[in-house]
Amino acid sequence: MKLLITGGAGFIGSAVVRQAIGQGHVVVNLDALTYAACLENVASVADHPDYCFVQADICDPSALETVFAIHRPDAVMHLAAESHVDRSIDGPGAFMETNIMGTYNMLQAARAFWESQGRPADFRFHHISTDEVFGTLPDDPAVQFTETTAYDPRSPYSASKAASDHLVRAWHETYALPVVLSNCSNNYGPYHFPEKLVPVIILNALAGKPLPIYGDGSNIRDWLYVEDHADALLTVLTRGALGRSYNIGGENELSNLDLVCKLCAILDDKRPRDQGSYADLITFVTDRPGHDARYAIDPTRIRTELGWRPSVTVDEGLSRTVDWYLANEPWWRALQARDGVGERLGVRT
Question: Which of 131, 154, 241, 308 has the most C-beta neighbours closer than 10 Å?
């Protein structure tokens, strides 16, 4: 298929681009190249004959109309979004504009194109979202998010993503636009932007800086290796039922403190400190507002309907991630140096 992938120069989007090309799809990567995007993320496929990059903003309806008219995609994978919780607390406006109005613009452009082509039955609009739209869970392993869990967003970021999910479902019900949706747990892996939790811990540790953890570190997340997520997204796109949503998780629940301790142990082995363990650098900082206690995904639907399960354990994935950051210092140094990102480094989930 020819895929129009929005946000394909970002962390998750670039993993989808790389896997889609590897699976033989034609890819049109649409990205506005805002602060968290980096074309180095897709450098490995930049010269591939089935790859094309378009710099455009999903908040620009005329640009989207042009992209659809020129490239005529068979499917859309909509990943472009503002996704940083702390930034949403500091400045929510950009999240409302990009995540809500940007998704509206994408839906309108896709609908207009789909209708102009005679409403082909095999067209797909895949909207990629987050488990944060469901709010928080109690500390009970038996309770997990399912696709029917009521929405209860707690931050400007999660509220904006919840709104975008509702728009996608409304366009399916009202206009019959053929859509699929997915909600994922916390991603980690290569090319992760340096202000998120896993890279912050790795890079602060290498620099001998404090390793900041919100509160007492008891907040629990389900950790999903980004390349597993990309594989799951392409599975949902090609095999998911229309109008259906799929929760995608890593089946790896860890508290933030346990995650950081695992990273410290891996670094102790791969790049030992002169004195002591990297865990000696752990520092607890004031919790952020509205910090959800626990996220956990029930993956029954995607496992039973589509036969998908994650292939990378959290220990293997964290080891691969540390190896990647150790081997790619020029990539993260360049990102730390731009737009004051280095000044913002702190705990991020």
Answer: 131
